[in-house]
Amino acid sequence: MEQLPFIHTIKTPLGYYFYDVNTNQIIQIDEKVYNYLLGTNKNLDSICDIEKKIDKLKKAGYLSNNRPSKMIHSADRSLEFRLNENIEQVTLQVTQQCNFRCSYCIYGGNTNLQRHHTNQCMSYDVAKSIIDFYVKHSIGQDTIFVAFYGGEPLLEFDLIKRVVNYSEKVFEGKDLTFAITTNGSLLNDENVDFMSKHNFEIIVSLDGTPEIHDRARKFAQTGEGTFGAIEKNLKKIRKNNPDFYRKIKFNIVIDPRNEIDALHEMVTNDEIFRGAYIRAILVDDRFTDEKTLFSNKFAIEDQIRQFKALLSYLGRYPDNKVSIISKNSLNDMIGKYKSFMTNQQQLSETMAPGGPCVPGQKRLFVNTNGEFFPCERVSETSDAMKIGNIKDGFDYNKARKILNIAQLTENACKNCWAMRYCTICVKSCDNNGELSGELKLIQCKIVINSTDEIFKDNIMLNEIKQLLKTSQ
After folding, report:
1. Using CA atoms, how far apart are residues 335 and 33, in angstroms rounded to an integer?
2. In the predicted model, is pLDDT for residue 291 greater than 80?
3. How far apart, in whole angstroms, are the C-alpha atoms of residue 361 and residue 74?
4. Beta-strand (E) ranges in 183-300?
5. Distance between CA 92 and CA 366 in Å, rounded?
6. Pick the residue with more confidence: 205 or 40?
7. How many beta carbons lie within 10 A of that of residue 119, not counting itself?
């Protein structure tokens, strides 16, 4: 394998290409060269011509068989420095309580893979200590980001106010932003007025149409649906505080077992979503016993919506008939592709896939007890995910293991053409408190397939653009 060019071949209805891993470029080739690279060209008459083209590509710096020899993250040597001086964001879990009981919630099920809803709340002393810790460990940061998480964080609004006021004192002179993820049911004049005056970003989580939402998201005390209460709050904010309303982003949780045509129609046409950024995510079943099943109907309908978004992007389909969710998904995909597809030098002797962030630097998550985690998405009951605490500071050994999860599957990673585009998070490797290479390899197949699709989609977009230009 090490003697073969480190490439990935790509075929579309209109052309032939290969992705050169070392230079991070996609190169168009003719069908004969494509088949030669696949090892399927048996036409001996054209071999001489093909080999001339191959030599030309090699002289241009392509088709190298160079591969990294070790999987070590580029931030490995600077890990202590990054965590000591350059923490970018801190997220405070101000409470583990929630006024909702959602059917799919990872905190409300019968599993032991994640914590459950509890009455634990963060004390002000712990919160203050976290902010002080952040001050000392963000010396190199001009931009400061403090986020609040739960449970439902607005249950602890008094604590949030105290933390905000204290943060503004100790971070004076820096660009300070606050953020909160909320279910939206407790938004009122008091907390909206406060958040609008203190540079808050806000994410409101929903499940879709009132019928779907109310089946999954019910009030803990009454068992009643919650959509009406949230909608009432949002409409009031939109009317009374339009500037703040424009800062609200929506996180739509999609269960593929539900009919979602009505959801796409709602977010496209309902006034509460007009002009808002909407991100759709599938139900996270990593820490639940009940696994999400995808129907063929869901997959087909989703691809049809994406195709309409592609046509709209090309000016061949009415924009107002395309789901906002599909448009945002397409724009995110195109933006990600453009940001990654930059010319590179040959792969280094030591590399790491693109998935792992620097645990604790990007978005340090601190639970109610002051324990440290890489972010809020990992399991709070997993010992492998605990990378320190407010009393003792960081456990650099644990953080380094998470940073270098590619070493769990080193041989596969060294030879993976999609390594630069890998999105595998340590969460996917967590096997009841131990990091598992077997679990990671399951995710590898998903990443490789999705990266191949992203490449093909963007190549075809460019192909169609060229066709449209020549036809004008």
Report:
1. 30
2. no
3. 14
4. 200-206, 217-219, 248-254, 277-282
5. 5
6. 205
7. 9
Take residue 464 and report the two structure tokens written for it.
Answer: 């169609």
Asked whether residue 174 carries a pLDDT value surpassing 90, the answer given is yes
Between residues 293 and 470, which one has the greater pLDDT?
470
- d(Cα 400, Cα 398) in Å, to the nearest integer? 5
CATH 3.20.20.70 in the chain, residue ranges:
79-340
| Percent of the chain's residues with pLDDT above 90 | 67
For residue 109, what is the enclosing H or E element?
Answer: none
Fold annotation for 79-340: TIM Barrel (3.20.20)
Distance in angstroms (rounded) separating the CA atoms of residues 268 and 355: 32
The DSSP 8-state label assigned to residue 427 in this structure reads: G
For residue 121, give the DSSP letter: B
Structure tokens at 81: 């420095």
- What is d(CA 373, CA 379) in angstroms, rounded to the nearest whole number? 9
Residue with tokens 């009122």: 188
- Omega before 151 within 30 of 0, i.e. cis: yes
| Structure confidence by residue, pLDDT tens digits, 438-452 | 999 999 999 999 999
Q: pTM score, two decimals?
A: 0.91
Contact 397, 405 (CB under 8 A): no
Integer Cα distance of 36 and 58 in angstroms: 14
pLDDT in tens, 275-287: 888 888 877 666 5
Instruction: Please list the alpha-helical segments (H only) found in 60-147.
Output: 79-85, 124-136
Torsion over CA: 184, 186, 192, 195 (sign): negative
Radius of gyration of the chain (CA): 25
